[in-house]
Automatic annotation (TrEMBL):
Residues 14-331 form the FAD/NAD(P)-binding domain. The keyword Hydrolase does not apply. SUPFAM superfamilies: FAD/NAD(P)-binding domain (SSF51905). Residues 355-412 form the External alternative NADH-ubiquinone oxidoreductase-like C-terminal domain. Its cofactor is FAD. It comes from the Bacteria. PANTHER family: 64 KDA MITOCHONDRIAL NADH DEHYDROGENASE (EUROFUNG), APOPTOSIS-INDUCING FACTOR 1. It comes from Candidatus Neptunichlamydia vexilliferae. InterPro entries: FAD/NAD-bd_sf (IPR036188), FAD/NAD-binding_dom (IPR023753), NADH-Q_oxidoreductase (IPR051169), NDH2-like_C (IPR054585). The keyword Transmembrane applies. The chain crosses the membrane at residues 373-393. Keywords: FAD, Flavoprotein, Membrane, Oxidoreductase, Transmembrane, Transmembrane helix. This is NADH dehydrogenase.
Length: 430
C-alpha cells in the first residue's frame, strides 16, 4: 500500500516470483509495465545461463561470462524488487511465504520457478565423489578437479596412479554429459598437449556412460549415432545400455566392469526443489508439481509452477521437456495471465512451441533438429553458437563469450585454467 501523488491510497497487487532462472526471469520481464508490485526471490544474487555452465567447468569460460546480477537486470524495472533469500515453505491458506531467516512474505499471485538439482537415485553418498553441474560453485569444483587431476598425474612416480588420475568418467549421456565429455577430450588431447613433461595428456581416457541404448535419448536416432561417432573420433569411450551400480574413491562400477578413475562427473538425473512438497499437491517421480493446463496448482488459481519444477503435460500426453525454451515460454505465458488479471475459467491452456534440440560435441561438431529437419557438423555447430549467444541476457556477456570462443577456435587454448587451492589443501589428496 502506497500513497499516490494526490495523497490517495492505492493498493497494488503483489506478485511474488521464487527463482531467477529462465522461467522466473521472463515472467518478471513480462510484468515490466504492469501496475503490479513484483518481488523476485532467489537463493543467489544472479541469473545463471545454465546451458553454458559446462564451459565454465571445462575452463573455456569464466563465471562472469554466463552469470548476471539480478539487481542489474531489473535496475530499470521500477515495479520489481529483488531480494536474496531461501523460501522454506508456502502457506497457501494465508497466502504467504516463510523464509529461512524467519521472514514472512505475503502474495496475491505466486510463481514458483525453483528449477531442479541433480539426483543420485537414492545414492546420495555418491555426491562427494561424483559432483553434478547445476551452479557456478559446482562448475568451479569440477574445473578444479579436472585440472588438478593432471597435476597429480604429473607429480606421481607410479604409472598406475598416473593412469587413474588421467581417467575421466561422465555418467549420463544427455546433452550435458555429451558436451562435457567432448570438452574434456579437447582439454586432454589439444589444450594441454604441450603443457606437461612427465605425462602425455593425450593418453587420458574419457568414458561416457549412459543407461539407455544410445546417447542423447531425446534426439532422433540418426543424430544420436552421429554424436556417438563424433565422440569416439575425439577419443571418448561411449558405453550404453549399462548402469552405474557403485562409485568409490577408486573408480566406478559399470555393470560387470570396474573403471579406475580419479575424476567422476554426474549428469544422469534431476530432482525438483523440496519446496514443492510444502504445496501438498501431487508430485511426479522427480518431485515436480503436477500442474493444470494453465500451469496453476489444483484449487489455487493464484499459484503457478513453471520450468523444471513443473510437470506439464503436452499434446502428446508426455511431460514437456525440462529445457530452457520450456521455462521461457511458460514464464511469458504466466506473466501475460497475471498482467491481464485473467480469471481461472477464462484462461487458455499453455501451448508449448517445440523448437527442437541441439547439442555441441566439440569444435565444428554438433547435432540438432527442428521438427523433421536434421542438421549436423559445422553448420549445426554455428547454429548452436548463435542460439546461445542470442539468449545471453546482456550485451557484455554476448560480446565477452563471442571473443572467448573466437580465441579458443583460433588457438585451441582455454583461458580460465585457474586452480585456487594447492593439492595439499585438498582433503582427497593422494
Amino acid at each position: 500500500m502506497e500513497g499516490s501523488p494526490r495523497g490517495k491510497l492505492m493498493i497494488y497487487t503483489r506478485v511474488v516470483i521464487v527463482g531467477g532462472g529462465f522461467g522466473g526471469l521472463n515472467c518478471a520481464k513480462t510484468l515490466k509495465k504492469a501496475n503490479l508490485d513484483v518481488l523476485l526471490i532467489d537463493k543467489k544474487n544472479h541469473h545463471l545461463f545454465q546451458p553454458l555452465l559446462y564451459q565454465v567447468a571445462s575452463a573455456a569460460l569464466s563465471p562472469a561470462d554466463i552469470a548476471t546480477p539480478l539487481r542489474e537486470i531489473f535496475a530499470d524495472q521500477k515495479n520489481t524488487t529483488v531480494i536474496m533469500g531461501t523460501v522454506d515453505q508456502v502457506d497457501k491458506k494465508n497466502r504467504k511465504l516463510l523464509l529461512q531467516n524467519g521472514d514472512e512474505v505475503p502474495y496475491d499471485y505466486l510463481v514458483i520457478g525453483t528449477g531442479a538439482r541433480h539426483s543420485y537415485f537414492g545414492n546420495d553418498q555418491w555426491e562427494p565423489l561424483a559432483p553434478g553441474l547445476k551452479t557456478v560453485v559446482d562448475a568451479l569444483k569440477i574445473r578444479e578437479r579436472i585440472l588438478i587431476s593432471f597435476e597429480k598425474a604429473e607429480r606421481t612416480d607410479s604409472i598406475q596412479e598416473a593412469e587413474r588420475h588421467l581417467n575421466f568418467v561422465i555418467i549420463g549421456g544427455g546433452p550435458t554429459g555429451v558436451e562435457m565429455a567432448g570438452a574434456i577430450a579437447e582439454i586432454a588431447h589439444k589444450t594441454l598437449f604441450k603443457n606437461f613433461r612427465r605425462i602425455n595428456p593425450e593418453k587420458s581416457k574419457i568414458y561416457l556412460v549412459e543407461g539407455a541404448p544410445r546417447v542423447l535419448p531425446p534426439f532422433p536416432e540418426k543424430l544420436s549415432e552421429r554424436a556417438r561417432k563424433d565422440l569416439e573420433k575425439m577419443g571418448v569411450r561411449v558405453i550404453t545400455n549399462e548402469l552405474v551400480t557403485n562409485i568409490t574413491e577408486e573408480g566406478v562400477q559399470v555393470g560387470d566392469d570396474f573403471i579406475e578413475a580419479g575424476n567422476v562427473i554426474w549428469a544422469a538425473g534431476n530432482i525438483a526443489s523440496p519446496l514443492l512438497k510444502t504445496l501438498d499437491i501431487p508430485l511426479d517421480r522427480q518431485g515436480r508439481a503436477m500442474v493444470e493446463p494453465d500451469l496453476s496448482i489444483p484449487d489455487h488459481p493464484e499459484i503457478f509452477v513453471i520450468g523444471d519444477a513443473a510437470c506439464s503435460i503436452g499434446k502428446d500426453g508426455k511431460p514437456l521437456p525440462a529445457v530452457a525454451p520450456t521455462a521461457i515460454q511458460q514464464g511469458r505465458y504466466i506473466g501475460k495471465l497475471i498482467r491481464r488479471q485473467i480469471p481461472k475459467k477464462k484462461r487458455r491452456p499453455f501451448k508449448y512451441f517445440d523448437k527442437g534440440g541441439i547439442a555441441t560435441i566439440g569444435k565444428n561438431k554438433a547435432v540438432g533438429f527442428f521438427k523433421a529437419i536434421h542438421f549436423k557438423g559445422i553448420f549445426a555447430w554455428l547454429i548452436w553458437g548463435f542460439i546461445h549467444i542470442f539468449y545471453l541476457v546482456n550485451y557484455r556477456s554476448q560480446f565477452g563469450v563471442m571473443l572467448d570462443w573466437t580465441f579458443h577456435y583460433l588457438t585451441g587454448l582455454r583461458g580460465a585454467r585457474l586452480i585456487h587451492k594447492s593439492i595439499k589443501e585438498r582433503p582427497d589428496k593422494k
